[in-house]
Design brief:
The chain is α/β, with parallel strands linked by helices and about 425 residues long. Helices cover about 35% and strands about 15% of the residues. The protein binds pyridoxal-5'-phosphate (PLP).
């Protein structure tokens, strides 16, 4: 047994994918653009195939710029075999699904899935002869098991769900699926592997839209799928067969974003919780839908399994206020397409995406945002947090100390700090 101390996730973020042979003397793995690779002999060409990360063969198979990012993402998922990159989060979802499903198969898809994921199932999978059955995001593993037929091949989870934020019991669903020989896929975009290492929880294919928190600066599109050893070969083969590729420039930017994922996510978390608490007290607001709030469906699974919450949550307006949602959205919006950068956005949801959901007036607030200004801070963690997170408390203490030193601290309740 190795007596090496496991690396802290923050350290992994900084060191991941920085192999000496890829750095070649530089601090960051450089952008290497190419389509064609030059070889010195026919033997070398033969040795370069089949394509493999870490071995130059042809531009589409990547260079160290893409391999390094993929390796850094894999490092965040204990137990994973590897990561493949895709030109968008949606491409990552659709290729991951295609890698495990074939004609005649059936997929169990969570009813709170991201809209385009749903469209892919209802249009493309259907066209390929693959049936999708939607399940309630709060379904227990037993209820899900009762839905399994002899055609069911896979269960897709998104936790928390898009817009309605139900948190699923991912480990229990995975354990049940494994027993029944089914593949599990998880859209882990909200938490990322940093707040929810999915492979260690039993997920076979963990998907992240790197467009959001991984990149973190609203300037690129990318997706990633990290696979358990049992699913790596198939995922890799399918990705290559569909010619999936990301540019080295985007891979470089995403890797640069990844290095600061920890500090950004914690700031997202603080900002979102502050805004959610402010919204909770507004007369127009019916309820907050945030996994860290005790009344969020599946909050107990968030408490048990997640290492933090991110910047995206929802709120439901009281009926009459729904008409003003667009105005609210504009008032909140600093950028029309804010995506996990240092800006905020609220976007109205026309209808709840879940026909059976009890909150039709859902607004997705603070979409992938970070609040960088800390002129007003929450009074105490225990007031805003259902559970005290040590790093939130530390962050608050340090913010309070610095602000007090500079004499610019204002408490929300107006009392001196
Ligand atoms: C949960 C979730 N999954 C997947 C995606 C798709 O990512 P992309 O926009 O990179 O295709 C998004 C985009 O908002 C998302 O919110």
């Amino acid at each position: 047994m190795s007596d090496k101390k496991p690396m802290h996730p923050d350290t992994k973020l900084v060191l991941g994918g920085r192999r000496k042979e890829w750095l070649r003397g530089m601090v960051n793995v450089p952008v290497s653009r190419t389509s064609t690779i030059l070889f010195d002999s026919v033997e070398e060409i033969h040795a370069a195939y089949p394509p493999e990360d870490g071995r130059l063969s042809y531009g589409r198979n990547g260079t160290w710029t893409q391999w390094s990012l993929a390796e850094a993402l894999t490092d965040l998922e204990p137990g994973a075999a590897g990561t493949r990159l895709f030109p968008s989060g949606s491409a990552a979802v659709s290729i991951a699904l295609t890698s495990v499903l074939g004609p005649g198969d059936e997929l169990l898809m969570v009813d709170s899935a991201y809209g385009p994921t749903r469209h892919f199932c209802d249009r493309e999978l259907k066209r390929l002869g693959i049936a999708t059955r939607y399940y309630d995001p709060v379904a227990t593993p037993e209820e899900l098991e009762a839905m399994i037929s002899d055609k069911t091949r896979a269960i897709f989870m998104e936790s928390p769900g898009s817009l309605t934020f139900e948190v699923q019991d991912v480990p229990a669903i995975c354990a049940m699926a494994k027993k029944r020989g089914l593949t599990t896929l998880l859209d882990n975009t909200w938490a990322t592997s940093f707040f929810f290492p999915a492979i260690a929880k039993g997920v076979d294919l963990a998907i992240v839209a790197c467009t959001k928190y991984i990149s973190g600066h609203s300037d690129l599109m990318m997706g990633a799928v990290t696979a358990a050893p049992s699913h790596w070969e198939r995922l890799s083969r399918t990705g290559r067969s569909f010619g999936q590729y990301v540019s080295p420039d985007d891979a470089y930017l995403a890797a640069r974003g990844l290095r600061t994922l920890g500090v950004r996510l914690r700031q997202h978390e603080l900002g979102a919780v502050k805004v959610a608490h402010w919204l909770k007290d507004q007369p127009q607001v019916e309820r907050i839908i945030h996994p860290a709030f005790a009344d969020c469906p599946g909050h107990e699974f968030w408490r048990r399994d997640f290492l933090g919450s991110s910047g995206l949550f929802g709120f439901a307006l009281k009926g009459a206020e729904t008409q003003r949602a667009t105005g609210w959205s504009r008032a909140w919006s600093y950028s029309a397409l804010a995506t996990a950068g240092a800006d905020s956005k609220a976007s109205p949801s026309r209808q709840s995406p879940i026909p059976s959901a009890p909150h039709p007036n859902v607004i997705t607030a603070v979409r992938w945002c970070a609040f960088t200004s800390v002129s007003r801070i929450p009074t105490t963690s225990s007031r805003i947090w259902p559970r005290p997170l040590p790093f939130i408390q530390q962050a608050e203490a340090s913010i309070r100390k610095k602000a007090a030193q500079k004499g610019r601290l204002k408490r929300v309740d107006g009392k001196p700090p």
